[in-house]
Amino acid sequence: MTVSPRALLRRVILRNFKSIGFCDVRLQPLTYIVGPNGSGKSNFLDALHLVRDALNSSLDNAMNERGGLAEIRRRSSGHPTHFGIRLEFELPDGRAGHYAFDIGALKDRGYEVLNEECALGEAGQGPRFKINRGEVKACSETTFPLVTADRLALVAASGLAAFRPVFDALASMGFYNLNPRLMRELQKPQEGRLLKPTGENIASVIGHLERVAPGQQAIVKEFLQSVVPMVQGVERKQVGPMETLEFLQEMAGARHPWRFLAQNMSDGTLRALGVLVALFQGNRDYAPTLVGIEEPETALHPAASAALRDALVRASAQTQVLVTSHSPELLSDPDLSDDALLAVSSVGGSTHIAPIDPASREAMRQHLFTAGELLRLNQLVPDPAIVSQQSARQAELFGGSEV
């Protein structure tokens, strides 16, 4: 196995998560999740986001932020079901592994982690643990911290050197649905190591990059100029006890760029900056293992799509990138591989996620159509044969990895 310089999420299996009854998909360093509004693209990203939130705060907080178990688990034939998530990954040292859990309801409207499993390396040979309803059933380590059925055991296990790399990889994922209104407002100075999901601490993140990663800041500036040519740069600006962003903008006849605070900038400019900061926020001390972005093309002029696409490709060389989109312009790249696409559709309220169908795949490989052109023709759909196989032979959440 070749050694990767960063962790990669290779495979995701979901069962009964929101509108997704079941899916089993492989991910690339850059993956586009494509489908119409309301098809369930966001639910796929939110399953990964839930894992990240549960590891960084608590499972209870992560579920309550989503309305509780009743809003998370999918109802099948009118009956409540438990939901489960399995993530297969490759760590920076080349070791493959998986992490999985499923959660069910209790009679008092509470919930419990029914099963939780983590394994690294060859089956039965590397670090591993298996837990059922808060009881350790198997473990490679001589000691294991106390666990309870209302929390994910990986949080406690992160104190053990054997499982710390798994925790770090999954807890360092970042997910973004950027909100220009929050980015425009004056912000309290915050810890700026990682951009928050809606961009509400972007001024602190820009300040952090100015101090510790000027090279990354220069990349953000370079791509921002490509997306919004009039903007010459952006800086953190102190305003009393608060902070905001200050943009340098070229003005006709002026010798030097004019300065404008974030409150004067358009939604498109702020969203473009947020996307670029999310992609290139990594520095020598910290970098997200995966960045998931909801519809980065929103509020951007179609002409900016090529520059945005170039930014996504460049960022994916260092950080795994997942993007939801329904933009033909963003996907109009003759060099885009069909393997980088996952198509999403909704049938009877159930979300299907799979590689694109064989006809569209072949059209892209023969360079007859780009993915963007196929999207305009409503031809980017999940392969029905793969969807049928997934439904008929659902992969197990627990057991050996296939990375």
What composes the largest sheet?
7 strands, antiparallel
- What fraction strand? 25-35%
Number of strands: 18
Radius of gyration: 22 Å
End-to-end distance: 10 Å
Instruction: Compute the average pLDDT.
Output: 91
Q: Can you tell me about this structure?
A:
- This protein is globular.
- It contains 13 helices and 18 strands.
- By secondary structure, the chain is α+β, with helices and mostly antiparallel strands.
List keywords for this structure.
about 400 residues, about 30% helix, about 30% strand, alpha+beta, 7-stranded antiparallel beta sheet
Concise account of the structure shown:
This protein has 403 residues and is α+β, with helices and mostly antiparallel strands. The protein has helices spanning 41-56, 59-64, 69-72, 153-157, 164-171, 180-184, 202-212, 214-227, 267-280, 305-315, 358-365, 371-376, 384-392; strands at 8-17, 20-26, 30-34, 75-76, 79-80, 83-90, 96-105, 111-120, 128-132, 135-139, 173-176, 231-239, 242-249, 258-261, 290-294, 320-325, 341-347, 350-354.
